[in-house]
Amino acid sequence: MERVPMTPDGFKKITEELDRLLKEERPQNIKDIATARAHGDLSENAEYAAAREKQSFLEGRIKELQSKVAMAQVIDPSKIKGDKISFGAKVKLFDLDTDEEKIFFLVGPDEADVKTGKISVTSPVGKALLGKVVGDEAIIKAPARTFSYEVLDIIFE
């Protein structure tokens, strides 16, 4: 079983969701199933079917989150030292094609969110940036086009 890198914030979000599902949503779902079952004929009971479907979703999500927690390797970026891009780095880049500055935060696959600039270390962009130092050029080949970035700054916070 391979460990998955995760920031403390990402780990906290996953454990909070798991806690909420176990302590709030699962017990409520059990009550919903009991209430729907009390309404009689289960073969034509839409409330019962919906509650059972939700139960299936909840149990699947709980198992998924428990697996993520078990495989997580929590790494605090503020404790990382170095001048190379690695997991947890906040990277300031200069797009050589559009002359724009971009900031990416390299995180684990479960935390990636392109809208907020969080890029997975396993993504094509993340892989292309790993190991680079200030002044290096990173070339990312995407299906639509090739991106060229110059590394301006690397921050671990």
From TrEMBL:
GO terms for molecular function: translation elongation factor activity. Residues 4-74 form the Transcription elongation factor GreA/GreB N-terminal domain. Keywords: DNA-binding, Elongation factor, Protein biosynthesis, Transcription, Transcription regulation. Residues 82-154 form the Transcription elongation factor GreA/GreB C-terminal domain. Belongs to the GreA/GreB family. HAMAP family: GreA_GreB. PANTHER family: TRANSCRIPTION ELONGATION FACTOR GREA (PTHR30437:SF4). This is Transcription elongation factor GreA.
